[in-house]
Amino acid sequence: GQQLNQSPQSMFIQEGEDVSMNCTSSSIFNTWLWYKQDPGEGPVLLIALYKAGELTSNGRLTAQFGITRKDSFLNISASIPSDVGIYFCAGQLNGAQKLVFGQGTRLTINP
Amino acid sequence: GAGVSQSPSNKVTEKGKDVELRCDPISGHTALYWYRQSLGQGLEFLIYFQGNSAPDKSGLPSDRFSAERTGGSVSTLTIQRTQQEDSAVYLCASSPDTEAFFGQGTRLTVV
Question: What tens digit of pLDDT does each residue of A2-19 get?
């Protein structure tokens, strides 16, 4: 069954706007990862989170490991055209090594 | 390069033929994943190898799909008697522990 719910499925925003997306689960995770996929490429790791409550930034990107260990969010500030792509969350369930992935959030930026 | 390498990058095959897709993971990575991605869609988990453990084959869609990983390194995904619905991008990822690193993918077109 689906272990990670990622939302929204798609976003249409104006350049310069801030973006927020999240992943939730009914299960506890030990690790949260956020990836971005450009067209024709494989996903690339953006941010890795290892501790509950951890807040990590990478340039205009900020991600947090939820305190309950069942959710994570990714924020992008002041979006630019190159932010377009599909963003995936992923995580390791408590007691497991295999990564599970969310369904992805497709980000489109209107000119 | 030191990244995950997949070959071929593109493959066009006739319906009913068998195909083999290759993945060269990053040296020393114990875990290897195969995913399938239809155009603009999410990542569909296929199979997971972790060290010497039995692979997790729970995502393979039918018995036409199989994969092996020789010597804990190179992996081959085989699709027998290809069908048009097998057309997709097949992505491989390897991981030393938590963070997974993806290859560029193989775009398979069944005509």
Answer: 579 999 999 999 999 999
Q: Would you place residue A1 in the very low, low, confident or very high pLDDT band (cuts 50, 70, 90)? A: very low
Give Cα separations from A80 to A15, A55, A73, A84, A110 (angstroms).
5, 22, 19, 8, 10
pLDDT digits (tens, 9 = 90+) for B42-100: 999 999 999 989 999 999 999 999 999 988 799 999 999 999 999 999 999 999 989 99
**CB contact (8 A) between residue A90 and residue B93:** no
d(CA B110, CA B47): 21
Pick from B23, B39, B43 the residue to mutate for testing the A interface (most A CBs within 10 Å): B43
Q: Considering only alpha carbons, which residue of chain B is nearest residue A39?
A: B40
**Given its phi and psi angles, is residue B81 left (phi above 0), alpha (psi -120 to 50 degrees) or beta?**
left
Nearest-CA distance A96 → chain B (Å): 10
Record: contact A42-B91, CB cut-off 8 A: yes
Query: From start to end of B14-85, where are the E strands?
Result: 19-24, 31-37, 44-50, 65-69, 75-79
